[in-house]
Every structure is written in structure tokens, then in C-alpha cells.
Amino acid sequence: MDHSNGVTAGKAARNLNITPTKNLVDTAITAGNLTAFVAALKSTGLIDALAAKGPFTVFAPTDEAFKKLPSGSHDALLKDSGKFKAVLNYHVVAGHFYAGDLKSGEVMTLQGNTFTAAVSPSEIHVNGARVTDADLVATNGIVHIIDSVILPKNWQLLAVAA
User: Fold this and answer.
1) Which run of H or of E encompasses 40?
2) DSSP state of 32
3) How far apart are CA 98 and CA 150, in angstroms?
4) Does a cis peptide bond (omega within 30 degrees of 0) precede residue 55?
5) Burial code of 31-52, b = ≥16 C-beta within 10 A, e = fewer?
6) Can you tell me the distance from the alpha carbon of 82 to that of 28, in angstroms, rounded to the nearest whole number?
7) What is the distance between the alpha carbons of residues 58 and 91, in angstroms, rounded to a whole number?
8) Residue 150, number of CB atoms within 10 A of its CB
9) How far apart are CA 140 and CA 157, in angstroms?
10) Do 19 and 105 form a contact (C-beta atoms < 8 A)?
């Protein structure tokens, strides 16, 4: 596995001298590679929640991560707002966690189930998804960019026949 694009847990960028000016949603928009994630937040009504006071830590899947979903499953989620909202809430943790603060183990999500964090000196994974960019600081939390859409245990997104 190529580790060159991963985030080093012990070396995550953290500049405490800069005061963030954007909320989590605007920070995700500025990242540039989270347009599918932001569109999903809009379609499920979660924009206001993630623009609220917080703090939240968001593990945001890239546009490429959404493209890796089984064929037709993204469209199926768009048609099932409740399930899509649950999937998105599974990517959000209450609290303010820099990459250097993350520890291996179970982490409770806003969706109500836990995901598994695996933290090593060389990289961070959540349910197998690799954190590729960490510590995007917002006024109401932190965004960590991940390379896959994550799901609670025993959940599956099935391909939909055309």
C-alpha cells in the first residue's frame, strides 16, 4: 500500500496560531475534492447541522471515494434520504479531535454506531478508510479527509440493477 499520501498521526499539521474563519461545511467546500460529500449534506438536510455550533470532527470521503461505491448505490442513497443521512452521520463524531488526538479503538458516531480507528505512527484508518488529509480546522470542528465511504458493521450498499 502506498503510504506517501497518508497522514502521519504523530506529525499531523496543527497550527494553533491561526484562527479558523469557516465552518465545517465551508471548510469542506474549500477543500475542493469533497463536492459529492457537500452535495450529500445538502440533499439530506445536514448542512445546517454541520454549520452549527459543534464541535464536530468529520471524516469526509473524497469525490473518488463516492465513485468507488457499488454501481447504482449512490443514486439509491440519493432516493432514500433517511438512509443517506444515517450514512453521513456515521462520518461525524461529537467533539474536536486533531489527528494527533486520535487513538486506536471504537469511536462513537452521531449515527449511533461505532467505527474502528486504527492509529499508527505512519497513518490513520477509520473502518479501513485511510485519512489522506488531516486537521482541516474549522470554527466548529475539524475535517479529516478519507479515501472511502465508511458504513456501520453489517450495513451494505447493494448495486441496483438498471
Assistant:
1) helix 35-44
2) S
3) 19
4) yes
5) bebbebbbebbebbebbebbbe
6) 22
7) 6
8) 20
9) 30
10) no
Q: How far apart, in Å, are the Cα atoms of 68 and each of 110, 142, 148?
A: 24, 24, 7
Task: Tell which phi-psi region holds residue 42, choosing left (phi > 0), alpha (psi between -120 and 50) or beta.
Answer: alpha
The CATH number of domain 9-146 is 3.40.190.10:
no
Contact by Cβ (8 Å): 35, 44: no
pLDDT per residue over 121-146, tens digit each?
Answer: 889 999 999 999 999 999 999 999 99
pTM higher than the cut 0.70: yes
In this structure, what C-alpha cell is assigned to residue 19? Answer: 484562527
Distance CA 150, CA 136 (A): 19
Name the phi and psi angles at 10, rounded to 5: -80, -15
Burial environment of residue 100 by CB neighbours within 10 A (0 to 12, 13 to 18, 19 or more): middle
Q: Which residue has the cell 464541535?
A: 55
Long-range Cβ contacts of 18-21 (<8 Å, 24+ apart): 18/137, 20/137, 20/138, 20/139, 21/139
> Model confidence over 67-92: pLDDT tens digits?
998 888 888 888 888 888 999 999 99
